Amino acid sequence: MPRLEDHGIVLGLKPFAEGQAIVYLLSENHGKCAGLLSKTKKTNQGLQLGHLCHFTWSARLEEHLGRAVLEPLKDHAAGIFLDRHRLHLLNMVCALLQATLPERHPYPALFHVTHHFLETLGECHFLTRYIDFELLFLKEMGFGLAIDRCTVTGTRDRLHWVSPKSGKAVSEEPGRPYEDKLLPLPGFLQKKTMPDEKEILQAIDLTGYFMHKHLGALSFYNGWDASRQLIRNMVSNDEAK
């Protein structure tokens, strides 16, 4: 009988039969997993999206849905339930991972960046952690950006733009004649400084361009992107103030 034991982040809960639900988890070592969950069990009744759990999964055969037994460890939504923007981001992250990740393909780096984002949701720099999440998500999906050196000169200095075709950085001098065709590269992504609202907007637009380029044809994407636009509008309104 196949059996898994791991840590996981709850990505979704779907009603199944009476007293049961299907739980979707991003696990640390086994990727996205799904299993039947008893809704009558007391520890499962307060489960929320983003909840960190220890879980076991077992089934008669590997290809079966199987049953999941969860031990909740931390509810990441508990401290932000009055902040609709942060809750909105939490739901967006869970929806994206549930819609795109294949079953049982390990993504340990993606698990850790997602967990770190959830851990910092209550802090002032939560949007920079979200950008980190999107950058790593693109990388793990095979669409990573190369923004550490200029694709033309090889230099690591004065990187101002990103090519929309290649996803590679372009420095100031070779890029200046084409700046209207290039995407701005916010400085905090290289210097690891604290960004202002303008740089956050640039980063949201940068990752958003490549999310749309590579995921735009998927059925879930338009609705998800509309939700993402609400976050951009929030930042834009803060900058206007």
Highlighted features:
alpha+beta, 2 domains, four-stranded mixed sheet, OB fold (Dihydrolipoamide Acetyltransferase, E2P), 9 strands, five-stranded antiparallel sheet, single chain, 7 helices, 241 residues, 24% strand
Note down, in words, how this protein is organized.
The chain has 241 residues and is of the alpha+beta class. It has 7 helices and 9 strands; from the N terminus they run βββββαααβββαβααα. The chain has helices at residues 84-100, 108-119, 126-140, 172-175, 188-191, 197-215, 221-240, and strands spanning 3-15, 20-27, 31-38, 52-58, 67-74, 146-150, 159-162, 168-171, 183-184. The strands form 2 sheets. A 5-stranded antiparallel β-sheet has the order 3-2-1-4-5. A 4-stranded mixed β-sheet has the order 6-8-7-9. Helix 3 (126-140) packs parallel to helix 6 and helix 6 packs antiparallel against helix 7.
Average pLDDT score: 92
Strand order of the largest sheet: 3-2-1-4-5
Query: In what range is the share of β-strand residues?
Result: 15-25%
Order of helices and strands: EEEEEHHHEEEHEHHH
Largest sheet properties: 5 strands, antiparallel
Number of individual domains: 2
- Form type: elongated
Low-confidence stretches: none
Distance between the termini: 59 Å
Strand element count: 9
Task: Report the structural category.
Answer: alpha+beta
- The gyration radius over C-alpha positions equals 20 Å
Helical content class: 25-40%
Question: What is the count of DSSP helices, taking H or I runs of 4+ residues?
Answer: 7
